[in-house]
């Protein structure tokens, strides 16, 4: 028989709402009163006097329980959920549902922790002195209890981390464009809260649990990056003056590979990633802006550098100011090198030779390493070696998503750069650029440092990398699943290295004019391309290459679709470097018969269309027009058949 003084209680698991219904002697429900205590909703009716005391006691018990639950399962950092030690307890389920109402969903991880595996992974982590000290980031109270059961002799501290403002999105951290010159506004990154820990805290291990929403762009997730940066900061500060601190990341998704390097990965089992990062390397990375919203190497003398071409006496001062913003040039003899790659592209041999010459003219004495495949002939290899390149022969890597014989079929061969493990740092440069001023300072930058390209992405034409066989394996493991936005290596690398560092655009200045550029802006760019002494550090020659044009003018003028790449000033700058080559090396820049026919065909088409720039009117004085190094030398005869057998799509 039901006791009229005993309530029936309904617990709503979603909101922990307690509905308390009381029946009178007749079993009929009466009107209810509602009281709210924190998250609990208590409903009870008027009752007979002999039941009121017991009801009051029960209500007080329920209020006390709600308070205990609130304190026990309040968020410590960023909330979550289900944990497992053999099997999940009902209390853990209730805790997860309770916290879902309190947490920022961006920080919530739905990951189950295998605590038995956790014990195995951490077996080699030893305390420097006394008991093992562990800092916990993004674990809730119930999970802390599992930590204590798993490692009963360790000391635990739950580190608080405020959530990032919801307005901070990945596009805010990685804007498509920033005002590098500071003409209108000084670029600034938003603030991400720092972990709140006692000053001087010492840990042997920092453990962080990361969200991983595979339904979205998990690799470009602000909360996920925030937690990893916080873990890195805790590890760096905790190891000050002591040996390295381990970092454990609990996640199903790949941690940021250039924050926590695979070279520092000591154990990886299931969703547990245990690192032992170098403190100095972490500290350098943490000093950088959190995204590309600021320059990692700001120009201090931006007024002089951008508003006008500096005089010869001003240039050393500007250069000195610029260099003071980063760690000074690394010592000569360090394991550092410039590198480029030639695969299926013998037409770039001349460009690579000129690039090597430009690096030496800039004053750098770093090693020059070139990766080549079997399509590069012995004669061409000999020329590259004479130019200063150290030869490395590679097996090409095919892009599985490219069509046969497409331009991007073999461009994943660039991943071989990470196999240059006899070097600690590599500045990769495309073979179609010139280094006009010394950029050795970029060796002080971490992986990946590059200029911005479009959207949240970087341009891989000049980039700093840190060779590692495990990073190479990482790149190879995902080539079947990752789709490059542009079909090439640049798009692929942007999916792996989403956390990158913006360097000034002058370190990879693209030879390109936008359709909307004003005449004044175009003239300004041209003045930069032709400045002597140079202002730009690197010029990247897009469009038709200078060595594949007559030296008389930039042949991009003869194709309307290539006008955006045409600059006589940039063209003349490249030919100055060419003229500094030895006569023997200049022979690698001779024109093929087919190329001569292609150039003349385009000139005639430009004349027919009466292009307003008038370059097609110029007489050709380039001596290469009359030098032949092939069996068939009559470009005039080839030209007669050009319209029948060739298309003028811009490819010689």
UniProtKB/TrEMBL annotation:
Annotated TM spans: 58-77
GO BP, one annotated term: cell wall organization
Matches recorded under InterPro entries: Glyco_trans_8, GNT1/Glycosyltrans_8, Nucleotide-diphossugar_trans
Membrane topology reported for the UniProt record: Single-pass type II membrane protein
Keyword Disulfide bond on entry: no
Single GO molecular function: metal ion binding
Pfam families: Glyco_transf_8
EC number: 2.4.1.-
Keyword match Glycosyltransferase: yes
Class in the EC hierarchy, top level: transferase
UniProtKB keywords: Cell wall biogenesis/degradation, Glycosyltransferase, Manganese, Membrane, Metal-binding, Transferase, Transmembrane, Transmembrane helix
Highest taxon of source: Eukaryota
Family per record: Belongs to the glycosyltransferase 8 family. Glycogenin subfamily.
PANTHER family: GLYCOGENIN SUBFAMILY MEMBER
Name of protein: Hexosyltransferase
Organism expressing this protein natively: Ensete ventricosum
